[in-house]
Specification:
73 residues; alpha+beta; 4-stranded antiparallel beta sheet
Length: 73
């Protein structure tokens, strides 16, 4: 994603969601906010105040398209 703001996008309105496959037993999981205009943000659910990775919708779609068929594992 091309950066236009050196401080990054405003994530204060992000609606964070975790996968229903994550369960409630702790462990590693991520949360995704797809409600931001022109951006998809991803963060560590165990550290909600920590940093987030931000992708364009096209980048996020390409990532999901690669993950679903199992290209990463």
């Amino acid at each position: 994603m091309e950066a236009t703001d050196p401080t990054g996008p405003d994530l204060s309105m992000a609606a964070w969601k975790k996968s229903s496959l994550s369960g409630d037993s702790g462990g590693n999981r991520v949360e995704v906010a797809g409600n931001l205009p022109g951006a998809v943000a991803v963060r560590d659910s165990k550290n909600p105040a920590g940093p987030a990775l931000v992708f364009s919708p096209g980048e996020w779609s390409a990532f999901l398209g690669a993950v679903k068929p199992g290209r990463f594992g």
